[in-house]
C-alpha cells in the first residue's frame, strides 16, 4: 500500500470513527461536529507521524551517505571556526594590551 493511500484511508477511518463515537456520546450537533473534527485531526497527526517514521526507516538505505561532500562541508566549517577564533583572540589581545583609564576618574571630570 502506498503511503498516500494509507494516509487517506486512515483519515477517512478517523473521520467516521469520530463521527460514530460523537453521535453515540453527545446530543448537541456543535459538540458532535467539534469532536468529529478533533478526532479526524488526531488521526491525521498520528498517521502522518507513523508514515514519516516508516518512510524514513525504509528509505534510509536508499540515501547514500556521501562522505566527500560531508568532509568538504566539515572542512569549510572548520576553516570558518578558525577564522572566528583568530578574530576573537585578536580582540581579546587588543583589550588586554590597551591602557584604559579609570572610569570613575573620567566621569568626575565631566561633572
What is the count of helical runs?
A: 4
Silhouette = elongated
Poorly predicted segments = none
Provide mean pLDDT, rounded.
83
Record field, number of beta strands: 0
Order of helices and strands: HHHH
End-to-end span in angstroms?
82 Å
The largest pleated sheet is described as: none
Helix vs. strand class? mainly alpha
Describe the structure in your own words.
This protein is mostly helical and about 110 residues long. Helices cover about 85% and strands about 0% of the residues. It is built from four helices and no strands. Helix 1 runs antiparallel to helix 2.
Q: What's the arrangement of secondary structure elements?
A:
Elements: H1 3-25, H2 29-59, H3 67-97, H4 103-110
Helix pairs in contact: 1-2
Features:
single chain, 111 residues, mainly alpha, 4 helices, 0% strand
What is the gist of this entry?
It contains 4 helices and no strands. The chain is mostly helical and 111 residues long.
